[in-house]
Write a structure and sequence with these properties.
about 15% strand, 9 helices, seven-stranded mixed sheet
Length: about 200
């Protein structure tokens, strides 16, 4: 079922992964990308090779993905998404803790460090969670990704996709450099994503 769903979304959006800075591999990774559409996580997941897709979990907002039975089924049974609380964050409902647990189980993750969808092509400022993950798990590869045109395929507020071509560009891994501050790392991470659009 997962392979069929992935094929359908790749076909719908006309997307294939362009590996510019690294190649598909068995390394545990966090793919971090710009966020402009509800299609983003699904399409990035769908463009990964099947072996990587099987152990890569999109991190997604629980309130959106449990809102209907179909979304809940897709999130849990097809994408194996890590559903996180984004509105009522508490010590018990801590997104960072849940992500660290998933990483410690050997999962790779798909993240959107802006935290919410943006209307601009250039990514907004990244939230601090990406830095804390990179600092706490330095052996994991952090891979920038730029998703293009998905906001036009499924514009905000629309329910039916428009037949256009999207693209997924995957860059070279980055890590927190010795002595690098949180602000410096987050801006550098944001720039690596944006530079994939410019390249």
């Amino acid at each position: 079922m997962s392979e069929l769903i992935a094929f359908l979304f790749r076909s719908l959006c006309g997307t294939r992964a362009r590996w510019q800075g690294c190649a598909p591999g068995d390394q545990q990774r966090i793919y971090f990308a710009n966020h402009t559409s509800h299609l983003d996580a699904i399409v990035l997941w769908a463009t990964l090779p099947a072996a990587l897709r099987a152990r890569t979990r999109p991190v997604a907002a629980k309130d959106y993905w449990v809102a209907t039975g179909l979304r809940r089924w897709m999130a849990t049974s097809v994408f194996h998404a890590l559903l996180i609380e984004r509105r009522n964050v508490t010590r018990q409902e801590n997104p960072l803790r849940d992500m660290l647990r998933a990483l410690d189980r050997g999962d790779s993750l798909i993240l959107f460090p802006e935290g919410t969808r943006a209307s601009n092509l250039e990514p907004q400022a990244f939230k601090s969670g990406l830095f804390h993950l990179a600092k706490d798990r330095p052996k994991i590869e952090f891979i920038p990704v730029y998703l293009e045109n998905l906001n036009r395929i499924l514009p905000k507020g629309d329910f039916l996709p428009v037949p256009l071509m999207g693209s997924v560009t995957i860059g070279a891994p980055i890590r927190v450099e010795p002595g690098e501050t949180k602000g410096s790392f987050l801006e550098r991470a944001r720039s690596t994503v944006w530079n994939l659009h410019i390249a």
